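[worker-b] picked up task from shared queue
[worker-b] task type: protein-ligand structure
[worker-b] ligand name resolved to zinc ion; SMILES cross-checked against name lookup, match
[worker-b] sequence length check passed
[worker-b] input payload:
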Amino acid sequence: MKALVYHGPGEKVWEDVPDPRIEHPTDVVVQVDTTTICGTDLHILKGDVPSVQPGRILGHEAVGTITEVGSAVSTLAVGDRVIVSCIKSCGKCMFCKKGVYAHCLGDEGASGIGWVFGHLIDGTQAEYVRVPYAENSVYRVPDGVTDEQAVMLSDILPTGFEIGVQYGRVKPGDVVAIVGVGPVGLAATMTAGLYGPSRIIALDPDANRRNTAIAFGASDAVDPREADWKEQVLALTDGWGVDVAIEAVGVPATFRMCTDIVRPGGTVANIGVHGRPVELPIQDLWIHNISISMGLVNTNTTEMLLKLVAQGRLASEKFATHRFSLDNMIEAYDVFGRAAETKALKVVITR
Ligand SMILES: [Zn+2]
Ligand SMILES: [Zn+2]
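[worker-b] inference finished, payload out:
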């Protein structure tokens, strides 16, 4: 089969590799019908994730059709159309039993880390992928939900919802600020609406992304490059700041923006993937009763979100901006890598 193989920083090739096969009785093999590219894949290609070894097939998001099932798999069958979740889940370990799949102790890839596809085991940017712990790691796609809608449930929608909205404890009437409205910030914008906040304020220097955030459910948008950006945000609250500030960029400056605008008693929910330390002004924050949360997605809400997509309550298809075939994987990377210019959110890649 063909797959996108990582050959060290800056090097990727769409090339022939051996077909995946069942390695453990709990595996399935899935024919990839639709996949996409994540910001994390770009980080890997920059060399920011050294645990990804050359030779690895990249990608952790896919929708496909099961072509082979292991001998211990009884609830899935060949021909089933499924979402491949970005997080493995053995379903048996201490963390899985608590719904903290992000730290599944199953030894596939490495024990204690749920994100293994395109990281520690071969991923989904390929014609076929082996999925471990399949009964607990894939979700059947109901009729009426398209691949394009479903692939947004592999990673971005659960990530924005669980780590931004749920960890941020968004409540009815809250004022929510989302700092950075790339795909994951937009996923938080879209799913924050499920809890009935009074305002959702999108902050992003990119005018196109600010406009997109409004189309995804934000009530207001602020350009953080403007000198009075903070006053603009506070003016949209009762003057005391936002109830929930969601960080979806992953650099010190944007985390600091969140601690600058959160009100006493509020929450800062960090989704951003940080590569260096952040200075925390705890000398000011401690007396403000601020909660700070962060984490890797558990994907334990995938089934619920899928139900909302199926019922037309979440328009996940809105993330898809560009379409490619698997053979044009390199071109898809190029367009996604130049997102500011191409206005790409999610590139949908189909067989
Ligand atoms: Zn991802
Ligand atoms: Zn587990």
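[worker-b] attaching auto-annotations
[worker-b] The longest helix spans residues 156-166.
[worker-b] releasing lock
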